[in-house]
Automatic annotation (TrEMBL):
InterPro entries: RRM_Rrp7 (IPR040447), RRP7 (IPR040446), RRP7_C (IPR024326). Residues 11-172 form the Rrp7 RRM-like N-terminal domain. The lineage of its organism: Eukaryota, Fungi, Dikarya, Ascomycota, Pezizomycotina. This is Ribosomal RNA-processing protein 7-domain-containing protein. Belongs to the RRP7 family. Transmembrane segments: none annotated. It comes from Phyllosticta capitalensis.
Amino acid sequence: MAPKNPVKVADYTVLPLTIPPSDSYPTATKHYLYVRAHAPKIPDADTNRSLFASNLPIDASENSLRTLFSEQLGGARLDRVEIEGARPKKDQRGAALSGADSGTTKAGKKRKRGANTDVDFTAIELPQTWDKEILKSGSGAVLVFVDKASAELALKEVARAAKKKSEVRWKGEDGLRIERYRIHHHLTFPPRDLLQTTVNTFLTKWANMEGARARAMAKQRSVPDDDGFVTVTRGGRAGPARLEEAQAAGEKLKEKQKPPENFYRFQTREKKKETAEKLKREFQEDRKRVERMRAFKGKIKPET
């Protein structure tokens, strides 16, 4: 007897979805969608009319989720769907040019006595070659409904369908159909000038970042800090610094900064204790040596 699937797991309601047969898998199967009220750490104005869904089917999209709730789960109307990790919808030409000329940088940790030279390269994306996106296994999404009543209705319908074991059929975007690969047997690549623009933008940002870092390092080599010290970096004023010289200078500085011997009172006590133990040990060794000499006295016969 097959075990019963739970209706609730923690705060989630487990909704079984029936995935119809396809060319890639010709047998109907079950997929379990986990749904709960959206509860982010920092609520916003849309939190009270939102649900969070986890373990989405890999061919899920905004249209397929709208169809699921409008046709089979009480007719709840979705305002928008924010799928975790999904690329934004852009045409082929706009995908690569997003952020191409923005020049934005990450607001990361500021370097000491230097400007932030970290550049955000994630905004530069290559154009898409597939018409439909396949999600990662276990992806989640925030489902924002038109109002709070619609969100409550949707969650109530999900709980009812899960409790009564109602069949809810999943209507995906045909993302796994064989037609997907037949269409892309001869892939249509983006225009060459578009790809060249994307690559040039990436390399330009990289060159600007490296130049900013070089200027920051040069400034560190020439401008002392508040304590009067100059930061030691690779590459001196006249040329690259030798690693051995830098290490030797560091060791010499450590030796110079060490306190003098027996500077502290506990060092004097430890030194006296070590000296006394050494003298006691030498005395015991000398006494044993004398006892051995006395034991062998007169017992040595000269050779004939």
